[in-house]
């Protein structure tokens, strides 16, 4: 497999965690979203992903984009360890939390949106994340065990950790979100989350390396 990734992309990080958890080795092709006006806009990368976004994964003779589509494919082709619970209610909760982050928070504060916000980008990002986290904190109080849904790592957790990293980067006050903070801390102790971390990628700038 070949993963097109950017060290700081939260969408790429989700996929890196899934690959690490499932023990799938891959080659990484860095796509720098800042350099050269954004390498994702090159003709070469547009041929890989017409949406000109990371991540993209070449695997089993196909090319997939969109992090949840990639994670779902990995789940179906490499079912262990499981990232979606067997129980239909828990499975639905995992998908709900993942969608809440992937559709309801992350796109509002991603690079392409922030570029258009100009000087207000920090305030905009903080507001988008805070309003999303207020809802998420409430949801997790009903679903969480050790992790987002019960005591097994799931697709929801793969979405949570990169989003908390974004929140910290945009200096969001995490005080009002004790459940999110607790789960994030527990997940960051797991090896798959450590090795996939933005501070430990081949394209991580020297000054940001762990």
Automatic annotation (TrEMBL):
GO terms for molecular function: glutathione transferase activity; maleylacetoacetate isomerase activity. GO terms for biological process: glutathione metabolic process; L-phenylalanine catabolic process; L-tyrosine catabolic process. Gene3D superfamilies: 1.20.1050.10, Glutaredoxin. Pathway: Amino-acid degradation; L-phenylalanine degradation; acetoacetate and fumarate from L-phenylalanine: step 5/6. The keyword Cytoplasm applies. The keyword Transferase applies. Its cofactor is glutathione. It is found in: Cytoplasm. Residues 87-206 form the GST C-terminal domain. It comes from the Eukaryota. Residues 1-82 form the GST N-terminal domain. CDD domains: GST_C_Zeta, GST_N_Zeta. One of its GO terms (cellular component) is mitochondrion. Keywords: Cytoplasm, Isomerase, Phenylalanine catabolism, Transferase, Tyrosine catabolism. Belongs to the GST superfamily. Zeta family. This is Maleylacetoacetate isomerase. It comes from Notiomystis cincta.
């Amino acid at each position: 497999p070949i993963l097109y990734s950017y060290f700081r992309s939260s969408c790429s990080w989700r996929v890196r965690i899934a690959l690490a958890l499932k023990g799938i080795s891959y080659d990484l092709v860095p796509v720098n979203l800042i350099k050269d006006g954004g390498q994702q806009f090159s003709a070469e990368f547009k041929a890989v992903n017409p949406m000109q976004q990371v991540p993209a994964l070449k695997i089993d003779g196909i090319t997939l984009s969109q992090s949840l589509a990639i994670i779902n494919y990995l789940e179906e082709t490499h079912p262990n360890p499981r990232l979606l619970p067997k129980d239909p209610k828990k499975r639905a909760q995992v998908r709900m939390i993942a969608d809440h982050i992937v559709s309801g928070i992350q796109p509002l504060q991603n690079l392409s949106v922030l570029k258009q916000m100009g000087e207000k980008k920090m305030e905009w990002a903080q507001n988008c994340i805070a309003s999303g986290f207020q809802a998420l904190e409430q949801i997790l109080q009903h679903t969480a065990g050790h992790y987002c849904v019960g005591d097994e790592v799931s697709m929801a957790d793969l979405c949570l950790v990169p989003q908390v990293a974004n929140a910290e980067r945009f200096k969001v006050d995490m005080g009002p979100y004790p459940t999110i903070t607790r789960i994030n801390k527990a997940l960051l102790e797991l090896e798959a989350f450590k090795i996939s971390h933005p501070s430990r990628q081949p394209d991580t700038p020297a000054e940001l390396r762990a």
